[in-house]
Design brief:
Elements (H helix, E strand, L loop, with lengths): L1 H18 L6 H28 L7 H25 L10 H26 L4 H18 L7 H4 L3 E3 L5 E8 L2 E6 L3 H10 L10 E2 L3 H5 L2 E2 L11 E4 L8 E5 L2 E4 L3 H6 L6 E4 L1 H5 L9
Parallel strand pairs: 1-4, 3-5, 6-9
Antiparallel strand pairs: 1-2, 2-3, 6-7, 7-8
Amino acid sequence: MKRQISRVSASIFIFFLVFAGLGADQRSDIFRYGMDLEETASKIAQSSFDHFKGWSGEISDQEQAILFKSEEFAAACRLFLRLAEERSDFFSSGSVRTNLFSAYNYLSRSFRDLENEMRRGGWSPYELRNAKKFMDKMDDSFSKWPSPENLAYLDKKYVKARNDTVYLIEKKGSGYFVRRPFMDLESLYRYNYDQKRGKNPWDHLVEVKEETLDKMDEERPISLTFEGWLIIEQSNRPDRGVFKIENGKKRGITSPQVLQRFGGWGRVYEVPVEIINKYPDGDPIS
């Protein structure tokens, strides 16, 4: 009966979203996944209790940690579902999507805590894998909402901090995103070419608030070079030279025939002149 009532609530919720002009595609999916997740979390809590209840002797601290984290995750799922179906000003605000995603951040943190405790305890019930599956589906739905405060939408994009540091946003787990700083301009352009994103990484830059960056842990920096690559200044100057970077120096290509030996124009990459100028001159290649 409870499940049936929840399904009716879901229908009302979706109708409200459409009526309010907020769209019912990803958000209705998230609400549906939230219902499935809440049911799965309840099963995890119950199965954890049943699993350790049958053991003889005093329950260990690690076993208690699993029990408490199981209950905490179940409670977090219930609260997330309440926030998702609440028909109030929460849904009429312009930042409804990021508000809901912020709630999901807390939910995913609770899930990671549970995963960690179960890993320490050497126990992983089948329902835990189902929970991860539903959370990954919510991640996917959130990623389709274009908002600079929505961490899932920022995945694989570049963002700039107040101090001009450029970061790559990376997903590390369900609802868990980190920022990795580029060591310099060269690292950014090289990474962008590696990802086959064209010659202008700034097309993939998203403006974000500093508070959004603060929500993410900072991980190891990205340090790349154009060592071994053919590069040319990114400009319209007719006399631009082509250089091959070798052993930390730029070596000028002296003729079209020499360039052809290295693969021709299709192997030449445009970069800002600052990147070229940072390399000392080497012997020309003829």
